[in-house]
Specification:
3 strands, 60% helix, single chain, three-stranded antiparallel beta sheet, mainly alpha, Arc Repressor Mutant, subunit A
Length: 149
C-alpha cells in the first residue's frame, strides 16, 4: 500500500474563530441525520423493502406536484442518479409488484410510475414507522435554521 496523499495547506484570509455553539448544533444535526438514515434502512428492511426501493417509493408517492406518480427522468433528477440506474431500480421494483407503469394521456411517449396496492401498503407501513425519527430530524433542522437567521 502507498502512503496517503499529502494535503495542501489552506490559504485563507484572517477568518473569525469558529463558534463553539454552532459547531455543537451542526454536530447534533449531523448525528440526527445519520441516525435517520440508519433507522430508515432498518425500517425499510423490516417492511420487506431495500433502502433503495423505499427511497424510490417515497419519491414517487411524494411527487412535488401531488400526483403521486413520476417519470424515470424526474426520479433520476430527484435521486441524483443516472437515468440507466433509475431504470434498473424501477424494473426490479416493478418485477416484485411495488410499482406499475401507465402511459400518459397527454403524451404517449411519457410513462408515469405509480405505486401498486402492494407498494402502497409496504411504503405506508415503513413511512408510519419512521414518524418519531422524522420529527427529531425536523426539530434539529429547525434549531440549525434558527441559529442561522
Amino acid at each position: 500500500m502507498g502512503s496517503a496523499p499529502q494535503l495542501e495547506p489552506i490559504e485563507s484570509a484572517e477568518a473569525a474563530p469558529l463558534n463553539a455553539d454552532e459547531v455543537i448544533r451542526t454536530a447534533e444535526f449531523r448525528q440526527r441525520l445519520r441516525r435517520f438514515a440508519v433507522e430508515s434502512e432498518r425500517i425499510a428492511a423490516a417492511n420487506g423493502l431495500t433502502p433503495q426501493r423505499y427511497l424510490l417509493l417515497l419519491m414517487i408517492k411524494g411527487a412535488p406536484d401531488g400526483s403521486e406518480c413520476s417519470t424515470v427522468t424526474e426520479l433520476s433528477e430527484r435521486l441524483g442518479l443516472a437515468q440507466h440506474t433509475v431504470t434498473e431500480l424501477v424494473a426490479r421494483a416493478e418485477q416484485v409488484g411495488l410499482i406499475e407503469r401507465e402511459k400518459s394521456l397527454d403524451d404517449r411517449r411519457v410513462v408515469h410510475l405509480r405505486l401498486t396496492e402492494r407498494g402502497e401498503e409496504r411504503f405506508a407501513a415503513a413511512f408510519r414507522s419512521q414518524r418519531a425519527e422524522r420529527r427529531a430530524l425536523e426539530a434539529a433542522l429547525r434549531r440549525t435554521e434558527e441559529e442561522q437567521s
